Amino acid sequence: MNVEEEVERLKEEIKRLGKVQPDGSYKVTFGVMFHDDRCANIFEALVGTLRAAKKRKLLTYDGELLLQGVHDNVEIVLKPSPPATEAAASVA
């Protein structure tokens, strides 16, 4: 699986585990993701995939490196997806 595919899977898992916010974003804590069996089976390097998604500005969280235990309560926020019409227009 390449990085782009992993980031897409990460977005799906955040939506599955997280809670939708009024602005359309999704919020989940690192601990919930880290301890989820499905995430553990999908992502060999969850922290690396999170960093790749953060670098692409698809999500935000405090800090650079998340560590199990120490950062279990850090909130990961998946930014809302742009409407399909805007996304199509920006590609053209």
TrEMBL record:
Residues 1-79 form the Costars domain. One of its GO terms (biological process) is regulation of actin filament-based process. It comes from the Eukaryota. Pfam families: Costars. Coiled coil: none annotated. Signal peptide: none annotated. Gene3D superfamilies: Costar domain. Belongs to the costars family. This is Costars domain-containing protein. It comes from Papaver somniferum. The lineage of its organism: Eukaryota, Viridiplantae, Streptophyta, Embryophyta, Tracheophyta.
